[in-house]
Design goal:
heterodimer; A: alpha/beta; TIM Barrel; 8-stranded parallel beta barrel; 11 helices; about 15% strand; B: alpha/beta; Rossmann fold; 2 domains; 4-stranded parallel sheet; 3-stranded antiparallel sheet; 8 helices; 7 strands
């Protein structure tokens, strides 16, 4: 065991895992967070807490992780390199570990021009791959990046994101290989709507034997409306929403959009489950946490296994 | 070269409102090439500024001079004569030029008429693009001659990030993904295997992060006795 998190234990036992995601509130209202996290409890094995996603100021990931941990939910702390240099990053990792957080998702982060502080200065002292290296060095060598010895090792199960749909496509597998080389333990993918393309990517992953070196969790997000699908298709860089998916949602009429979105999501999970090398699902029900239980149940993934 | 852009006229007008006699200094090097602060631009700005003040019933006297290089003592020293008759200087040099004048002519206010943008090149007619961030530790040799620090919006050394789409950056469609360019170039050079290696965290101390920088060439320094 590298960190002994629930997620790590289940994956090492060969269980097909389910992780969820939760964005902290834009303020101090803990009840919002508790309500959202409550929908995920028991339905997923670990919950990603985003780190000021899309560069919008929110409650810190570390604090929100601690709050859901106290609710009995295992957090997966997202950390972006956009806002912190290597000093702050390592300090926060110590702090998170001291609070009992055992999973970290290493990200570069969205550019700040997307968020509510586009005039801010960014940091990007490290990139996501270098952040993986840093956490691994802290955990496995007991040293900070600068070389000093650590007193009290931060035991972290190291995660990262992968986007098979970004360009250049041929290089996407190499980038995963680099993350593995840097020391990543598990990866979660960008939301998958183009399953054919994803299967092709997984084939390339298997050709290099990478599926045996890292746990790959396939990302899914239920679509709520035609507008949402269209927005992701047109405005989110590196997202691949095929026209056929949009047509399908459109086809059922406005009242049944959500139902169809859930259906597509469940079908995707069932197809993804069959792909060799997929170790689990990362279910991102964005601002729709209450639907997670139904999706996981319909996909035949309940009850969630226990580690004991 | 240094690429700059002229400030809006209103801003320059506001800066100069308390003065009646101005020395306007252009620079014949970088900012002439990027058409922001050469002799021609000095002429245009002087006329426009006079007119702008005139509309507020204020007459100002502007003496126009363009020096070869505003960032070198020997080229701005001849401005000494003109200094006597002016109350303030409006510089159309880059940030280095403005500060060179300020350092030499300590009793006169120097006002910048340009915004210094970046080190770059005239990409095509009327378009200048950033190429170098002057990080002080050039790694262009490792990335096929395309700088990830300057050309990637996140300066990542192990790109491209998940926001690279159809050759463009996630920020907007106007920006090429620097890492797509690196990938394409390395492919052409048959050196894609080099991108399999993880690039370690960068030493930023050679960049601005190490504090204001200077270069000392001991072999060229003349000892002051």
């Amino acid at each position: 065991m590298k960190a002994g998190s629930n997620l790590e234990k289940l994956l090492s036992k060969g269980e097909f895992v389910v992780t969820g995601e939760c964005g902290p509130p834009k303020g101090t209202d803990v009840e919002i967070l508790k309500r959202k996290a409550g929908y995920l409890k028991g339905n997923v094995d670990s919950v990603n807490i985003t780190d000021n996603q899309t560069s919008i100021v929110r409650m810190s990931s570390i604090a929100a992780c601690k709050i859901i941990k106290d609710m009995g939910i295992e957090p997966n702390m997202q950390m972006v390199t956009r806002d912190r240099n290597r000093i702050a990053i390592q300090s926060d990792i110590f702090g998170a570990s001291a609070l009992g957080i055992k999973n970290i998702l290493c990200l570069t982060g969205d550019h700040q021009s997307f968020g509510n502080h586009p005039t801010s200065k960014n940091v990007f002292d490290l990139d996501s791959i270098q952040l993986i290296q840093t956490v691994k060095m802290m955990r496995d060598e007991g040293k900070v990046l600068g070389g000093d010895e650590i007193t009290g090792i931060p035991e972290m199960f190291i995660g990262a994101a992968v986007n098979p749909f970004a360009d250049p496509f041929e290089f996407r597998v190499t980038r995963l290989a680099k993350k593995i080389k840097a020391g990543v333990d598990f990866v979660q993918t960008q939301c998958i709507y183009n399953l054919d393309k994803f299967e092709k990517w997984m084939e390339m992953v298997r050709d290099r034997g990478l599926h045996e070196k890292v746990y790959i969790l396939a990302g899914v997000t239920p679509i709520k409306s035609v507008g949402m699908a269209r927005y992701m298709q047109k405005n989110v860089a590196g997202m691949d929403v095929p026209e056929s998916v949009i047509e399908r949602i459109k086809g059922v009429g406005k009242e049944k959009c959500k139902e169809e979105g859930i259906k597509i999501c469940v079908e995707s999970i069932q197809r993804l489950k069959k792909i060799k090398g997929i170790a689990g699902i990362h279910l991102m029900a964005i601002e729709w946490e209450e639907i997670v239980g139904e999706i996981v149940k319909s996909a035949g993934l309940l009850p969630r296994p226990s580690v004991n | 070269m240094i690429v700059a852009e002229r400030k809006p006229l209103d801003e320059i007008k506001e800066m100069t409102k308390e003065y009646n006699k101005i020395l306007m200094v252009g620079c014949a090097t970088c900012v002439t090439v990027c058409m922001a602060g050469g002799e021609k631009e000095v002429g245009i700005l002087a006329t426009a500024l006079k007119m702008a003040h005139k509309m507020q019933k204020k007459d100002i006297d502007i003496k126009e001079v363009t020096v070869e290089r505003q960032c070198e003592w020997e080229f701005i020293e001849p401005l000494k004569e003109n200094m006597k008759n002016c109350e303030a200087i409006v510089s159309l040099g880059c940030g280095a030029g403005v500060q060179t004048i300020a350092e030499m002519y300590k009793d006169k206010e120097v006002l910048p008429a340009l915004n210094t943008k970046f080190i770059g090149i005239p990409q095509e007619q009327g378009i200048w693009m950033e190429k170098c961030l002057a990080c002080g530790d050039c790694k262009l040799g490792e990335f096929g001659g395309i700088c990830p620090i300057a050309r990637c919006s996140k300066s990542i050394l192990n790109g491209p990030c998940g926001g690279s789409s159809k050759g463009k950056c996630e920020i907007n469609q106007e920006i090429d993904c620097g890492w797509q360019l690196i990938y394409d170039r390395m492919k052409t050079l048959n050196k894609l295997h080099l991108l399999e290696e993880v690039a370690s965290p960068k030493n930023w101390s050679t960049s601005r992060d190490g504090g204001p920088r200077k270069v000392v060439r001991e072999d060229m320094v003349i000892d002051k006795v």
